[in-house]
Amino acid sequence: MKREIPLIISMASGIFVLVGFFVPHPAIRAIYDDIQQWVIIVVAFTYVLGMANLMRINVEQIQRRSKDWVYKLALVVSLLATMAVGFSEGTHYLDDGTKFSWIYNTFYSAMSATMFSLLAFFIASAAFRAFRVRTVEALLLALAAFILMLGRVPIGSVIHPYLPVAADWLMEIPQNAAKRGILMGAALGVMATGFRVILGIERTYGSEGGGG
Amino acid sequence: MSFSLSALRHLDRRWIFLAIGLLVVVPLLTGFHIAPVLPGARARGFYDVIQKLPAGSTVLLAGDYDPGTIAENYPMHLAVARQLMARNIKIIGVELYPGGPPLADRVLHIAGEEYKKRESYDYVNLGYKSGNEVVMSQMGSSIPRTFPADRRGIPVGRIPVMKGIENFGQIALLVSISAGFPGTKEWVQQIVSRYHVPMVAGVTAVSAPEYYPYLQAGQLQGLLGGMAGAAEYEVLVKAPGLATRGMDAQSLAHIFIALMIILGNLAALPQRTPGAKK
After folding, report:
1. Confidence at residue B275, expressed as pLDDT on a 0 to 100 scale
2. How far lies B138's CA from each of A11, A32, B265, in Å?
3. N or C: more exposed end of chain A, with fewer CB within 10 A?
């Protein structure tokens, strides 16, 4: 039963969601809406589960003084401190002037933007050290990169008025054709996987793990 | 020449970091200006769709990003809020990124103060809800059931701007400001394809190519790609801001990266050892 019950729940939910997507009949729609509400509630609980798992793994490693345990301690302390501040400020925890909003602006916002900004440095370094034009394909890639990098910024039209036009052509014709093919392939894959889940062939979510 | 190539081969990458840092920071701090920003067809499409909306209609503004992509998404988010409020269009904000609500609040409050709009009457931020595409799909059935209260905890039944709003039948346009998943692609799949709501999107540069097929198919009626798209749109709404200022830095950074590719390949040319046979 441990194996069959999750399969039956998945099949029933999958069939109702699939039918509900295409059939707007009130009876089906009501069940469809209920299932969606349950999903929203379950997803909210996964955050709690994720946090509990994060705590369990990190606290264990801190206790064992494993490699980089100080960083794990910083993570746990930050998590608990942020939660404590958030709970102490109630439902208005994100209003202007709250301590939680100070944490958000001073730490979270700055650190998130910094992580993304580092890309500029690594891309410049990688362009110098790794982008080697050794084959015809690499040459085509380099040419496309030059046209796009220069054609997509204002200086492109100063260098040559045709650069933005060429950049647009690259994006709208060859890029679009390739992207459309990838999207269609991925969509067929998603449909196949969806049917496998609904029919109980794909069972990676089951208690055994690893499928089969 | 051989000395220069040898120096290139042993170039410390910290010099590259310093150069790119200066090329980005100096134009931003000094206002150094290289070239004007010229709006393209995609940004113009985005702008025109909003211009054609009747005053008093309601738009769903999805701010699906967090501070990680603030440089690209925030300027376009602010510019679209300004254009909507300038045209007296009501805004319902939602966010599917946990870190998104404070940014959406900031955008709506800044634009609201500029155009003398009142929260709850002219705009509202319903906030964040976990569940990704399921939230979108559920909104198709009932927006008040999906978001029973706004971000401040006020029940939607008591919010004037939400009066008469049940689902996408009452939404004139869906505007998605998106950093990835869940975002523009999911809004197209869950809402545009089912309810045929007109939609425009502002996305990060790295994800923009993914949305070209939707744009060509007419499922998206306008697309802002990255900071360049945001800058073009700022020019159209006549409110040059962070993105327009950032374009000179981005121009120099792109030229530098192109130069790095050329220099890197020159440095990788086969070395000639003295006395070796040709």
Report:
1. 56
2. 20, 9, 53
3. N
Residue-range domains of chain B with CATH: 2-32+249-267 (no CATH), 41-240 (3.40.50.10160)
The amino acid at residue B65 is: Y
pLDDT, tens digit, 9 for 90 and up, residues A161-171: 999 999 999 99
pLDDT at B28 over 80: yes
Q: Determine the longest span between alpha carbons in chain A, in angstroms.
A: 70
Examine the pLDDT at A199 and tell me if it is beyond 70: yes
Task: Report the first-to-last Cα separation within chain B, whole angstroms.
Answer: 18
pLDDT of residue A26 exceeding 80: yes
Please tell me which of the candidates A36, A150, A157 has its beta carbon nearest to residue B134.
A36
Range 197-256 of B in CB contact (< 8 A) with A: 205, 209-210, 212-213, 216, 225-226, 228, 231, 247-248, 250-256
- For chain B, the residue count is 278
Tokens of B172: 């004139």
Q: Where are the domains of chain A?
A: 1-88, 135-212
Return d(Cα B62, Cα A38) in angstroms, integer.
23
Between chain A and chain B, the number of residue pairs with CB atoms below 8 A apart is 167
* Chain A residues lying within 8 Å of B17, measured CB to CB: 121, 124-125
Tell me the average pLDDT across A31-58: 91
List chain B residues with CB under 8 Å of A33.
138, 141-142, 145
CB pair distance less than 8 Å for B258 and A183:
no
Picking from A40, A91, A150, the nearest residue to B129 by CB comes out as: A40
Segment B255-278, tens digit of pLDDT: 999 999 999 999 888 765 555 554
d(CA A35, CA A37): 5
Residue A209, pLDDT above cutoff 70? no
Kindly tell me if the per-residue pLDDT of B1 is higher than 70: no
Q: How far is the C-alpha of B98 from the C-alpha of A112, rounded, in Å? A: 13
- Judge: A152–B24 Cβ closer than 8 Å, yes or no: no
Question: How many Å from the N-terminal Cα to the C-terminal Cα in chain A?
Answer: 16
Here the tokens at position B273 are 């050892």
Q: Which helix (H) or strand (E) holds B173?
A: strand B173-178
What is residue B65's predicted lDDT score, i.e. its pLDDT?
96
B105: nearest CA partner in chain A: A95
Query: How many Å apart are CA B102 and CA B112, to the nearest integer?
Result: 15
- Quickly list H helices, chain B: 2-9, 13-30, 41-51, 70-86, 101-114, 133-141, 143-146, 184-187, 193-195, 212-216, 226-236, 242-267
CA distance A9 to chain B (A): 18
